[in-house]
Specification:
With 130 residues, the protein is mainly β. The chain has one domain: Jelly Rolls (Sandwich). The strands form 2 sheets. A 6-stranded antiparallel beta sheet has the order 6-3-8-2-1-9. Strands 5-4-7 form a 3-stranded antiparallel beta sheet, with no helix packed on it. A hairpin with a 2-residue loop joins strand 4 and strand 5. The longest helix is centred in the C-terminal third of the chain and has 9 residues. It comes from Modestobacter marinus. Keywords: Isomerase. GO terms for molecular function: isomerase activity. This is Mannose-6-phosphate isomerase-like protein (Cupin superfamily).
């Protein structure tokens, strides 16, 4: 059994992205987006994503719709929807997200968005294959 006090674990991480757990069908990831930062516009063609916000304030953009987000909010991104999440506040935007199926390499840690983008472009952030 894996157990996380997820809000605490997420708040304690300064990394842009950290994979906490990877299963066969889902993956748990925590993220910290700095003030003025963003996840980056993307589409996961065959992956559903659920994001829960732990602290900070931001804006969710999913399928062209915009919604402000804050602590306690949850946003669902269905597979195939273009999306982005932006930090609009003065403090880090902290969240955890569940991908189904996994999206990133197991136990991946990306300190910054730039590092995450470079590893993805180099093919070094691929999810495990069954």
């Amino acid at each position: 059994m894996e157990h996380f006090t997820i809000a605490t674990v997420a708040e304690e991480s300064a990394d842009f992205r950290r994979v906490l757990w990877t299963g066969e069908h889902t993956q748990l990831v925590i993220m910290t987006i700095p003030p003025g930062g963003e996840i980056g516009e993307e589409v996961h063609e065959e992956i559903d994503q659920i994001l829960t916000f732990v602290s900070g304030t931001g804006q969710a953009v999913v399928g062209g719709q915009k919604k402000n987000v804050a602590q306690g909010d949850l946003v669902v991104v269905p597979a195939g929807k273009k999306h982005n999440f932006l930090n609009t506040g003065v403090n880090p935007l902290v969240l955890y997200t569940v991908y189904g199926p996994p999206e990133h390499a197991d136990k991946a840690v990306h300190k910054t968005k730039e590092e995450a983008d470079a590893l993805e472009e180099a093919g070094k952030d691929e999810p495990p294959t069954s």
